Amino acid sequence: MECNGNGLCFNFDAKSPMCPSMKISLNRIHSPKGRATLVREWLRLLADRGVDPLKLEKELPEKRASLRTLIARTRNSWHKRKGEYDFSHEVKEAMSGCLACKACTTQCPIKIDVPEFRSRFLQLYHTRYLRPVRDHLVATVETYAPLMARAPKTFNFFINQPVVRNLAKKTYRYGGFTSAFCPFIATATGGPSVCQYDA
């Protein structure tokens, strides 16, 4: 955290690209300074408990997923749903609004990089708490998209059912399904035509 607290990120000028999420929310917690302050406090609390986040980061590539860690993350996520307090939830809330646009790195005089420390925080956060199902859905899209492209009409039929849309919104908090798998993918890879979309 190199933030020196100069406050230049509290810029509401419409012509300034500095942190659009802070301008929309009108909340200084969502500014680069606010996010850096929260992460600095989170790191201080970890240090008070004797936890070294750099050591944890270095150990992550060698760690294998195990039933024990899954149970621990499930238990922690359950406690989170029940309202058990953890300061890292406040940090995650502030980070969730970050667009990762990197305007902070270009506009801040000391080049604070919120997207970089945001990704590092989230990586450690999700070693303690389960990722939302929608994260897995988006992360594996390259695996299942070719399968859906082979049967676009079937996929579109199911995805356009109100039950499926409502389930996706409630379960995954994901409402972005569209009929994108008309013959587009097959044709974009060498076929004669491309889908037409209404504006």
TrEMBL record:
Keywords: Iron, Iron-sulfur, Metal-binding. InterPro entries: 4Fe4S_Fe-S-bd (IPR017896), 4Fe4S_Fe_S_CS (IPR017900). The keyword Cytoplasm does not apply. GO terms for molecular function: iron-sulfur cluster binding; metal ion binding. SUPFAM superfamilies: alpha-helical ferredoxin. Residues 87-120 form the 4Fe-4S ferredoxin-type domain. It comes from the Bacteria. Coiled coil: none annotated. The keyword 4Fe-4S does not apply. This is FAD-binding protein. It comes from Salmonella enterica subsp. enterica serovar Daytona.
